Every structure is written in structure tokens, then in C-alpha cells.
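Worked problem 6 (solution included).
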Amino acid sequence: MSRFDELVETVDAYQARAAENYDRIRKLAVDLKEGFCAYLGTKDGVCVHLVPPVGQFKPMTDLERAFSIPSRGFRPLGPVFFGLAVRVTHGTDWIRLTMRCHKLGEKFTLHIDEGPSYTFQLPLADHDPTEFYELLFHHVRAQFTEAIDHYDRGTDARSIGFDFSESEESQDQA
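Solution. The predicted structure is:
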């Protein structure tokens, strides 16, 4: 076997693992999107979407842009970032949480940007994610309650640690 063939064989093994990593994280993200919306118990439509982890976003699931690595082609093996948009009013106000997910042994660790981390055991289907949904809910809610508390105490309200989606009205006025 030539050195080039040896290199190609190694990269093929690398890409197989990168594809497995991406597929597992994508499935986890889709499950979390659906599960967290059900956990929130909204009665008026969808309340969670998968969105790009950075940049402007619209509150609509876009599986091709929701992850930091491409769905096809050469993919790096390592942590994957994705955005989770959560509706926070009965209207059209959405925030984005950026998540970083990586595999460590037989566990996936999901880190919420500017927030806590949570470790999922593999296989994911064998474990109830309610504890994670509670953690995520309390993280989102705390961003608002802490700002309210700062305001009520007369101290500077700190900025909320989220990106908000652009409203349709602000896009129409531009």
C-alpha cells in the first residue's frame, strides 16, 4: 500500500467517525427541539426551532444551517454547535440559545453558551431528558428574572445573554 493509499484509508476512518458524530448530535438536537417544546406545554403553536448557532436567524427550523458543520462533504471531527430558538411570548419574540455538543466516551456533553452544561448518557433513547429540559427552562427564565431583579433594585439591568430574532416589523421598516 502506498503512503497516499494509507493516508486515504486513515481519512476514510476519520470521516466515518465524523459522520457518526454529526448524525448523533443532529438526532439529539432534533429530539431536544421537539421535546423542549412539548415540555413547555404551549397551546398556540410551535415554540422551539433549530436555527444557525451564529448570525441572524429567523424562527424556522433549517437543518442545513442549524449546525456548525455541513450535513454533507468533508466534516471535522469534534464539537458541533447548533442554535435552539425558543419563543418567549405569545407573539413572535424568539431568543436563540447556542449549544456546543461533544462526545466523551459513551456520553454527550451539551454546553449552553453563557450557561450550564449537561451530560447525556448513550444511548440517548434509554434516558429521560426531563432533567435537561428543567435546566434549560430555568436558564432561560433566570435571564429575565435576574434582569427584572436588577431593575427593581435600581441597579443596572445587565444584558440578556441571548440573541433575539428580527421581527417582521423591523425588517419591513428597513
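Discussion: The helical segments are 3-40, 130-153, 168-173.
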